[in-house]
Design a protein that fits this description.
elongated; four-stranded antiparallel beta sheet; 20 helices; binds adenosine-5'-triphosphate; alpha/beta; ABC transporter transmembrane region fold
């Protein structure tokens, strides 16, 4: 984590100075105490006491100023570093290949970014400074003890290793348990996220009780691990306290006899006890903080794991620039693809397809045929296992994915809206677009009319994932977003959910408008689409079975004919009749 402190080296130096300064003042207070007892009380006159109290008050003032600086600087560093860390982890995670999130739950990652960084914040912002301060007090205390009374110091020095040993032994366990406890918290964090996001399904299936039970098991598992950690820590603290105060009692006994025998003054014994207590307390604090530091080490490991996760989709070292004037031609050359979790079955199998610039193609095929996979491959969410996908003649693996995606827009089956206004949701397609451009896009997507009727028009808030809009409205916003992006290549996954006739008509019109003059691939679920595109590609088990237009395929492909009649029912044969008649 030191790398994160580097930019703030002046703050760190300032904090270290304040820390050393306050530790020094605290240590010198023991001498003040000795003066006060031996001179202030010993002489019997008030002047000695007055002077020592004035000096004492001056030291208290220095201590309070130093403490202000120390607390401020150290907390500042803690907050700053955790903010930087959060930013860094998020910006790393958001670039990771989508496959990563199939094995790592998003809720779990969320928890790492929030709870683990908060833990680090408290550790950097207080525990580290407490540890450093107490290490200084410990070392300074021992030195001053030696000065005050070497014989008694021997007792302290013998007890120190006795105290440090359990700290190290228990600390190791605490670290392991802490990591496991944070892991468990992350697991139920992920579960809460998933069930709240899908609250309607949870309630519709009356799943609350079951979810409650699952959640309860996860929470209890986290509690069990936390309990084991607490037990270790409780043992640690009580052993340390017993050892420390045992040693002090022994010292008081030996020192008390020395005072009675007149070998040392009462002030010396008081100063000695003051330092001994300081040493003891510093060991106590270090032992507490040590397990905090161990917990932080666990959190750091988890965060570093995220930061070092391999991004499987990367720009090549020397990515090829796309030409200025992109046409939008797409070619699949013997493409095969296996999902990493299913290495035996190809999701796409030796597929060769060509889409001329500006043409449109519908992908049809039964469920699981590989249509969505093909769309993901074009967007480079996954890299092909074999073969090549060429965009304007360039292998997309040779391109920076950002550059490639700049020319592609996608309208997914379930439109994705973010909790923001309608305006900003459309502007997602091109963040630098003006309000007028956004409105023009909404008009082209036949969305302007309904948006105007919303309570705050374009500024209306759509709710989380757009819950305040209907399915058809969400789709038109997603289309407007793609219109605004004005891509060379359009990827469309038509919605399967039935819209009412009017919405369906409007969405269809918006789509046709959007597809004009650009290369488009549509995962088709509607007859109107397959009839309107230039080519239809029939897929089955990841293979290309046939291509052609609607009538050609009805005649040539039994699979297509069966699929069309299942999908469109009578409408398909009607369409054929209409077209045959014409
Ligand atoms: N992330 C994944 N990991 C492993 N296998 C996957 C993954 N996504 C899809 N598959 C598998 O790949 C095959 C193709 O899936 P794909 O989603 O591309 O089909 P599809 O034609 O789009 O189907 P649908 O019309 O039902 O959406 C299926 O057998 C599916 O189970």
């Amino acid at each position: 984590m030191l790398g994160f402190l580097k930019p703030y080296r002046w703050h760190v130096l300032g904090a270290l100075f304040a820390l050393t300064f306050t530790a020094g003042v605290t240590l010198s207070m023991g001498q003040g105490l000795r003066m006060m007892i031996d001179q202030g009380f010993g002489e019997g006159a008030g002047t000695g006491l007055d002077q020592t109290i004035i000096i004492f008050m001056f030291m208290v003032m220095l201590l309070s100023i130093g403490t202000f600086a120390r607390f401020y600087l150290v907390s500042w560093i803690g907050e700053r570093v955790s903010a930087d860390l959060r930013r860094e982890v998020y910006s790393k995670v958001i670039e990771l290949h989508p496959g990563f999130f199939e094995t790592n739950l998003s809720g779990e990652i969320q928890s790492r970014i929030t709870t683990d960084t908060t833990l680090l914040q408290t550790v950097i912002g207080s525990s580290v400074s407490m540890a450093l301060r107490n290490v200084l007090l410990f070392i300074g205390g021992i030195i001053l003890l030696l000065f005050t009374n070497p014989k008694l110091t021997a007792i302290v020095l013998i007890s120190v290793p006795l105290v440090i040993m359990p700290i190290i032994i228990f600390g190791r366990h605490v670290r392991k348990l802490s990591r496991s406890s944070q892991d468990k918290v992350a697991v139920f964090g992920g579960f809460v996220g998933e069930s709240l996001k899908n609250i309607k399904i949870v309630q519709a299936f009356n799943h609350q009780q079951r979810d409650r039970e699952t959640f309860s098991t996860q929470v209890e598992a986290a509690f069990d691990v936390a309990l084991r950690r607490i037990k270790h820590r409780a043992w640690l603290t009580s052993i340390v306290i017993a050892l420390v105060f045992g040693a002090i009692a022994y010292m008081l006994w030996v020192g008390g006899h020395d005072v009675i025998a007149g070998r040392i003054t009462a002030g010396e014994l008081a100063a000695f006890i003051f330092y001994a207590l300081m040493v003891a307390m510093s060991v106590g604090v270090i032992s507490e903080v040590y397990s905090d530091l161990q917990r932080a080490a666990g959190a750091t490991e988890r965060l570093l794991e995220l930061m070092h996760a391999d991004n499987l989709i990367q720009a090549p070292a020397e990515s090829q620039p796309l030409p200025e004037n992109i046409q939008g031609e797409l070619h699949f050359d013997e493409v095969s693809f296996f999902y990493p979790s299913r290495p035996e079955t190809p999701a796409v199998d030796k597929l060769t397809l060509h889409l001329a610039a500006g043409s449109s193609m519908a992908l049809v095929g039964s469920s699981g045929a590989g249509k969505s996979t093909l769309v993901d491959l074009i967007l480079r969410f996954y890299d092909v296992t074999e073969g090549k996908i060429l965009f304007d003649g360039i292998d997309i693996c040779q391109l920076d994915p950002k550059q490639l995606r700049e020319h592609i827009a996608i309208v997914p089956q379930q439109p994705v809206l973010f909790s923001n206004s309608v305006l900003e949701n459309i502007r997602y397609g091109r963040p630098d677009a003006t309000d007028e451009q956004v409105k023009a896009a909404a008009e082209a997507a036949y969305a302007d009319e309904f948006i105007q009727k919303l309570p705050q028009g374009y500024d209306s808030f759509v709710g989380e994932s757009g819950v305040r809009l209907s399915g058809g409205q969400r789709q038109r916003i997603a289309i407007a977003r793609a219109v605004l992006k004005d891509p060379k290549l359009l990827l469309l996954d038509e919605a399967t959910s039935a819209l009412d006739a009017e919405s369906e008509y409007k969405v269809q019109q918006a789509l046709e408008h959007l597809m004009q003059d650009r290369t488009s691939i549509v995962i088709a679920h509607r007859l109107a689409t397959v009839v309107n595109v230039d080519t239809i590609a029939v897929l089955d088990h990841g293979r290309l079975v046939d291509t052609g237009n609607h009538q050609q395929l009805l005649a040539s492909s039994s699979l297509y004919a069966r699929w069309a009649s299942l999908q469109f029912g009578d409408a398909a044969s009607d369409a054929v009749t209409i077209e045959e008649a014409s």
